[in-house]
Batch of 2 targets.
Target 1
Amino acid sequence: MTNTNVHDAAIIGAGFGGMGAAIQLGRLGFKDLVILEREDDLGGTWHVNRYPGLAVDIPSSTYSYSFEPNPHWSRLYAPGEELKKYASHVADKYDLRKNMRFNSVVEGAVWDAENEHWTVNIAGGERLHARYLLTATGFLSQPKMPEIDGIETFAGKVIHTTKWDDSYDLAGKKAAVIGTGATAVQLIPEIAPTLAELTVYQRTAIWVTPKSDAKIPKRVRSMYARVPLTQRIVRGFGSGVLEVLMVAAVLKYRRFKMFNKIAERVAKRHMARQIDDPELRKKLTPDYDFGCKRPTFSNDYFKAFTRDNVHLETTSIERIEPDGIVTTDGKKTTIDTLILATGFNLWDVNFPAIEIIGRDGRNLGKWWRDNRFQAYEGVAVPHFPNFLTLASPYSYSGLSYFTTIESQMKHMKRLFGEVSKRRASTFEVTPEANAEFLDRMTEKLEDSVFALGSCSTARSYYFNQHGEAAILRPTSTINAFREAGRFPLEAYRYA
Ligand code: NAP
């Protein structure tokens, strides 16, 4: 089936990134938008992830759109379902649902040079056309299944944390969790009391610092609703602290590595307060610098390992059998439930998440892999006209995904403003502007913990297959916002 109508824009992904882009395009006067979403509802990561213990770990006042504050967060760090509710509220308030098409799995998009539009191929054979293509497919949207011998022979229940089965009762089960990333840190303390036995398979330990979480009293919430400025002040303060920590401990490691050392001491003391056994503490202590891998926050992760029914296994997994896991020392642990907290595949399949073919047949994924991962200001790539990639190399502001989205919205405003002023049909970033940006980001990374810290054992997804930490934009958020509003207009060619 072919639809000959050419939409103003096709946005791929109905998470916060896609919704932010749709809001901005709406403000710029584009009316015919289509938002394609592979899941059956909106919310992106906050729709897909529903595992027990899910919550934000950046203060909620910061982890939300600045133009759409939410006075109703119940805690400083809101639980996952409140984020999903917030996403629905935004979709309703900005009337985005009418543009959304769920269960629409986009297989690829091809630039049609003759007609100056994108052709988007949807699973099932449907095609649609749009003048602009914006991909907002997130950074953590392709779940990683571990390649472990025999995993397919396991006869019990297998659950990846992105596909939580609410109907499955964990009570009295003998479970294993593979993985000790941010997801496992939230999940393990939640499920441990319900299970008969829980064995946690840790390959790489993670830095965990305390989480200063608390309920937000009703009177404070109603004050936020009545006087939004009060919540803005809280947001400003929280964002300011995070920004300083991010810039100092991650980006300016050369000068400020004492911040990382302090954070390591805080994490170790946090662990020592909850675990007496020095052997267990040693196993849970990372051997890489704080900041190499995304640190996590929890007040009950370490405590969970002091329970009689929770066991930490640090010997490597050799194979999985129908009824258990065998480690390389020959020990077998019998289980009936296998929980995979094994994270996401970013570099092989997420950049980009779909096949994108630009001008002269250039394949974005292949080009990124054969050359280097790169995107001008984290949004545009040469040879890909009328295309903005919102989950790109060097786009992620470490502060909060919402600052990434909002700086990209600002970039869109300036770019589309110029396109409209010139009455251009196409825009495309120049190779020179792109190269200058990549050189600048590469140089800035030289001061970061990724270049100077001891990161080789961290196995961090921040690093790609070429050993480059190419996700985070290695500048302050202030710089990202400033450049989004002032980038040289001649960085793009307009035709
Ligand atoms: P992750 O950080 O990538 O952790 C995956 C874990 O699985 C790691 O411990 C990894 O070990 C382990 N693993 C993977 N394959 C394995 C294998 N074959 N054998 C043994 N272990 C294996 O994934 P995640 O915990 O889902 O977190 C991903 C990101 O999601 C976080 O960094 C964060 O950005 C985001 N997140 C955010 C929140 C929030 O509160 N906002 C909550 C959860 C997640 P290695 O380290 O050795 O590879």
Target 2
Amino acid sequence: MDQKIYIFDTTLRDGEQVPGCQLNTIEKIELAKSLEALKVDIIECGFPVSSPGDFNSVVEISKNVTEARICALTRAVENDIDVAAEALHYAKKGRIHTGIGTSDSHIRYKFNSNREEIIERAVKAVKYARNKIDDVEFYAEDAGRTDNEYLARVVEAVIAAGATVVNIPDTTGYCTPWEYGEKIKFLMNNVPNIDKAIISTHCHNDLGMATANTISGVMNGARQVEVTINGIGERAGNTSLEEVVMTLKCRKDLPFYTDIDARQIYKNSRLVSTLMRMPVQPNKAIVGRNAFAHSSGIHQDGVLKNRESYEIIDPMDVGVNDSVIALTARSGRAALKHHYERLGIHLSPEELDHAYEKFLLLADTKKDVNDSDLLIIVGVNRNEAARKIRLKFLQVISGKGSVPMATVKLNIDGEICTATSSGNGPIDAAFSAVKQLVNRKIVVEEFLVQAITRGSNDVGKVHVQVENRGNLYYGFSANTDIITASVEAFVDAISKFI
Ligand code: KIV
Ligand code: ZN
């Protein structure tokens, strides 16, 4: 029978350690709820002794999350453990994650100590934590570079002291998959009480092997994996949740399963990217913009005939609405036809031939052929299409103590219409005024603001993705006024289907 692999998400702790990615408590609760809907088993949400903000977030997440287990990190220090236990007071199911460095380098330079003393400190911390809570995970920091014989002694001692889970972190991302798998296997075979605890992987991605190391750990006996959404984390990041979950799901020959609701993966990826202001690299496995995009003619034709020709995952399975058939000079007629049909234009074979010739000429000079270009090719005036809806005027009132309000004037097909609306911020207010004017059901799926340089006088680039009647539309704008850029990008997206 397939075995369950527990998903321990540390986006809110290890992931949040990325400089510039810090979230406030409200954002952390939003993400924790979304991770709960994704059905992760454990949410590690902070290091309570490190700051009042972290303490408060663990308290509030504990109050708001009911299904997933809430975990708080500590060092092997009694005060850390006291503070973590207090922060977890409201958790329905709580866990303290305590630990200490076990590699010779950590023992010598970080702790100025010796191997025996480190085992004593580890055991003392686990026993102390077990007096506060019945679920205690121990981490052997830098286990990746720890001597296996010594690591086995540490693991045996902390399990005897009451650890329910033992985490074997490759803290520096140094291990190769083979080596990490052997390490887990060595522990499974050489720690007499290993069956009393769950062994967990925690791999960093410094050499780009975090996912491979994690899977190798699972194949050799680990039953919990520590991961983050989009693989975010310090330096090159942590193991990415989506990569591990989809590997276990899509490789039917591996006898493992997780409880993750994979259709929530893309949504969580967008949420993390937006909240943490960290764009996902386009070619990122599973969640990158190009992860399901096919650009060569042969591949496009194959996918349009049968998705499985070049796709091992149905994009719908991870919550992506469709695979993207990119239009480049290498695209074939099948891809072009697909795009025209998406725009509601059905061409006869002769018309398609004609359009294809023009398309190839354009694609040779233009890297990215967009919807407006396609309309021009078949004689629909692009400018007219683009001009159907334009932002003419925008005024917002916002600031501390005031209710954000926005007045928007749009030129819709030559007619000037005005609306005023409030919102939970100036952008929300302006978007809601635009929605009133266009009178369509529009859901904002993605909203990303990026600075071009770093100064406060910088130009903000805004990407918006909206959903209307099951289709997604992108809009873009750039302006030194990011509220104007946001509304222009929103209107740009809407103009694609109005
Ligand atoms: O990478 C690491 O070793 C860690 C531990 C604190 C679990 O994040
Ligand atoms: Zn880590």
